């Protein structure tokens, strides 16, 4: 029998984005025809998908580390890199995804709830792939026609997550060990759980599907509870969480127990006390009914034993005084099972209707604010300041400035610091965002130490407000501005004129021609022109 696992810690890594290409197009008679480097491909993502065909998290325990494929690098001739393939991992219905917190090398504990996968087909991107870097063809514009660099790809998202499974069933069967819960699941459905005559036979929840007329519902056998379970005794809290998603709670009471200090009413009260203690610190989803308010049904089991029938007749009035419906059954002889099956169906139908109304009420109360139109790029989706400048210092009087921001970190990650022109491009982008002005406002002066970039991989440099980088000569002096190349000025689109420039040139040429005609006419009227048959040279006689 396959092992049941309902809680695992996994380490997921999205694929890195491919680097952009730095390339120049070359063809006959046009040795430098402009940049043609392609963009890098996006890295693959790791996606969790909810599936009814999966009932355990065992696969994640066997393989807790998963990595998606990296994106391919861009190439010349305008070739973009191929995208990395996504990895789709199936999880059972009822899986909750938490952020894992804790020190490296030590057990993790649950952090923020990231996703609650309750519907088949529902997906969650657990680790997103990195964005591919732009090639120099995409970076070219009118001002910078020949970028001598390309952007690097972003690393994929890397994170530790805790996956917890909370079974989603309509009915939860609770009771002491060996009360007959697994036998009841086997008798009402086609499930075949392990059944034996010793306590704690059931170590994992067993789910079964029951059909009663036109009503179809599921029942879950929660492993045996004992007094102190809410404090960790017995199986403790390990399986109490599987009760959170159920709608009806059925107490299965053993009326044939041989333990002298137990009786049906005491068993019921002890388990209710544990459920109440567990319910205090429970955070329920919208529309869910608190455990203390969910319908209860009492099932007196093992009526095939003679003494059990007598005991049931004694305790039945006590349960009915509490307003609880009581059913006497025998999973061995199937006595009373048909009546119980349809009674559970009626209770589930009523509870489902109540839950639907509660969800509808909460949906009306919920205020959802949506923008009229979401921008397609991340820059326009930015809410609030794009970065913050913080000054840090130590007791020795040293100080430095830290520039924090998601966009700033992304710019630093994509910069190739071995390329001076790429560094100059980063400086221009930071200046356009106002980083230099913000540093000056925070008190930074030229030469101060500045940190920026992602945490753990920061770039440290000294503040220099003006950076020039471009094509350099033999003496390392910049010949042209960054992103330009004098060799491209005689080729390709560098010589092309726009329509407006053509019109301006045409009118200027017409004006020059009109001015030349007017000048010749003035000279003719002034007598500057002479008869070609008359010569003024004394050496050449007239004809």
What is this structure's SSE topology?
Blueprint: E1 7-13, E2 46-51, H1 58-62, E3 65-67, E4 87-92, E5 95-101, E6 109-117, E7 123-127, H2 136-139, E8 158-165, E9 171-174, H3 181-188, E10 206-212, E11 215-221, E12 248-254, H4 264-280, E13 296-301, H5 306-321, E14 326-328, H6 337-365, E15 388-393, E16 399-404, H7 406-413, H8 420-433, H9 435-441, E17 449-452, E18 459-462, H10 499-525
Protein name: GTPase Obg
Domain OBG-type G: 169-349
Keywords: Cytoplasm, GTP-binding, Hydrolase, Magnesium, Metal-binding, Nucleotide-binding
Description:
The chain is built from ten helices and 18 strands. It is an alpha/beta fold and 543 residues long. The model is unreliable at 198-202, 229-236, 371-376 and 468-475 (pLDDT under 50). The strands form four sheets. A six-stranded mixed sheet has the order 10-11-9-12-13-14, sandwiched between helices. The protein has helices spanning 58-62, 136-139, 181-188, 264-280, 306-321, 337-365, 406-413, 420-433, 435-441, 499-525, and strands at 7-13, 46-51, 65-67, 87-92, 95-101, 109-117, 123-127, 158-165, 171-174, 206-212, 215-221, 248-254, 296-301, 326-328, 388-393, 399-404, 449-452, 459-462. 34% of the residues are buried. The chain has three domains: 7-165, GTP1/OBG domain (Spo0b-associated Gtp-binding Protein, Chain: A, Distorted Sandwich), CATH 2.70.210; 171-365, Rossmann fold, CATH 3.40.50; 388-487, GMP Synthetase, Chain A, domain 3. Helices cover 25% and strands 19% of the residues.
